[in-house]
Amino acid sequence: MPSASTKAPTTVGAAPSSPELLSPGAAGYRRMSFALFAAGMATFALLYSTQALLPAVSADFGVTAGTASWTVSAATGALALCVLPMSALSERYGRTTVMNASLAVAVVVGVLVPLAPNVESLVALRALQGAALAGLPASAMAFLAEEVRPKALVGAIGLFVAGNSIGGMSGRIVSGWVAQAFGWRAGLAAVGVMALLCALVFRALLPKARHFTPGTLNPRTLARTVRGHLADPLLLRLYGIGALFMTVFGAVYTVIGYRLVEAPFSLPQGVIGSIFLVYLVGTASSAAAGTLARLGRRGALYLAVTTTAAGLLLSLADTLTAVLLGLVLITAGFFAGHAVASSAVSRTAKRGRAQASALYQSAYYLGSSAGGTLGAVAFHAGGWGGTVLLGLLAVLGVVSITLYGTHAARTQARLVPAGARH
Q1: Which pLDDT tens digit goes with each residue over 335-357?
Q2: What pLDDT, on the 0 to 100 scale, is given for residue 232?
Q3: What is the pLDDT of residues 220-260, one digit of tens each?
Q4: Minimal CA–CA distance to 92: which of 7, 15, 19, 18?
């Protein structure tokens, strides 16, 4: 939340009183859920719009998988770099204002992306699109933390993440089938139209913020807030977990198209796009994050990493059934882990929530960028087994961080008097 030095509310997003926080069952909660679900759809559909089309992009421009993967990594990397400055703008001008502007610019850039004459300009436009989208994820998390009852927060964020999974799935399916019939440029154009519709739904349904208090754009204040978050051991662990989970996911879904287009599978572009129907599993696991929270944060994370690791190992088999089941497990584990970690960030940060969420998003999308590029390099060097090895190392990193957190929590519980704990 803003510091004590923030000004009195003067914008539409501010409220002079303290209206009741939203909770499941309320009309405002339902409108908010649908709106942010649509925003999540648009974000992932645009952000990963070229991922299912990478083999076609490689063939058209005559470039390697590693070079083509930059059309994904540039977008996620630019988002990671810009999400913190965008979160600062949301502290001053409001969550809803920044989210609406981000989606609008990203959709406009989406019109230009299919017109790129070469791979260099395609990468540049995708980076611009990723930078535009940066205003949405952290602002959305902060919006939910301010407007939703704490007990309903995990579920609300899970629904937003579920929108991510639906957007990622539908964008890839639509682009895959359209590309098979009309080429990859038409596939990207179709994703742009879908994102435009989602942006219109978001703008129409999102309720006004009732608990937002505008702050300032003081760089020193921002730097102090960021330093405070980076000095928090729990937040640092959550940032690392988000980055590592996304490294696995980015590597797997950047490379899977190249694997399936080759023998023994030799699948056409449309069918490869339909493989992303497994994202429905991510929708379910994200929406069920509130139920998983009953296991405790660390218990839910252990379940997520076990599921992800099992999927990676299963995907090594050279049968389509085994690969699909492996993708199902990887997707379920990833989205569950992401929903748990991101909601824990929102609960942990007592002030500067937009910056706390922005740092998580930065780590998360840097993990995606690194996973996409390193996954392609590993695939080139060692085939699918190389990509799986990279994913298993990232999963091992999540386990190590979670075990360390468990040890640190037990140590603190022994050292801190019961009355001083919080």
Answers
A1: 888 888 888 887 788 777 778 88
A2: 92
A3: 888 888 899 999 999 999 999 999 999 999 999 989 989 99
A4: 7
How far apart CA 246 and CA 86 sit, in angstroms, is 21
- pLDDT at site 62: 94
Q: Which residues pair with 22 in a beta bridge?
A: 148
DSSP annotation string for 377-412 = HHHHHHHHHHHHHHHHHHHHHHHHHHHHHHHHHHHH
Mapping DSSP onto H, E and C, the string for 189-245 reads: HHHHHHHHHHHHHHHHHCCCCCCCCCCCCCHHHHHHHHHHHHCCHHHHHHHHHHHHH
Average pLDDT value for residue range 135-162: 78
Asked if the peptide bond before residue 2 counts as cis, ω within 30 degrees of 0, the response is no
Q: Which of 230, 207, 116, 108 is nearest to 156 (CA)?
A: 207
The answer to whether 131 touches 266, Cβ cutoff 8 Å, is: no
27-415, CATH topology level: Growth Hormone; Chain: A; (1.20.1250)
Distance of CA 310 to the CA centre of its chain: 22
pLDDT digit string, tens, across residues 114-131: 999 999 999 999 999 999
Q: Which of 133, 68, 364, 389 is nearest to 252 (CA)?
A: 389
User: How many CB atoms are closer than 10 A to CB 271?
Assistant: 16
Do 238 and 349 contact (CB within 8 A), yes or no? no
Per residue in 178-206, pLDDT (tens digit) is 998 999 999 999 999 999 999 999 999 98
What one-letter code names the amino acid at 39?
Answer: A
The whole-angstrom separation of Cα 405 and Cα 411 is 10
Query: Three-state SS for 183?
Result: coil
List the one residue out of 178, 197, 199 whose CA is nearest residue 189.
178
Q: What is the rounded distance in angstroms from the CA atom of residue 215 to the CA atom of residue 92? A: 5
With contact defined as beta carbons under 8 Å apart, do 291 and 155 qualify?
no
Q: Alpha-carbon distance 106 to 46, whole Å? A: 8
Residue spans of the domains in the chain: they are: 27-415
Q: Amino acid identity, residue 252? A: V
| Interior angle at CA 213, CA 352 and CA 196, nearest 5 | 85
Classify 256 as helix, strand or coil. Answer: helix
| 3-state DSSP assignment of residue 162 | helix
Question: How far, in Å, CA of 320 to CA of 316, rounded?
Answer: 10
Distance CA 337, CA 286 (A): 8
Q: Which tokens hold the place of 233?
A: 């051991």
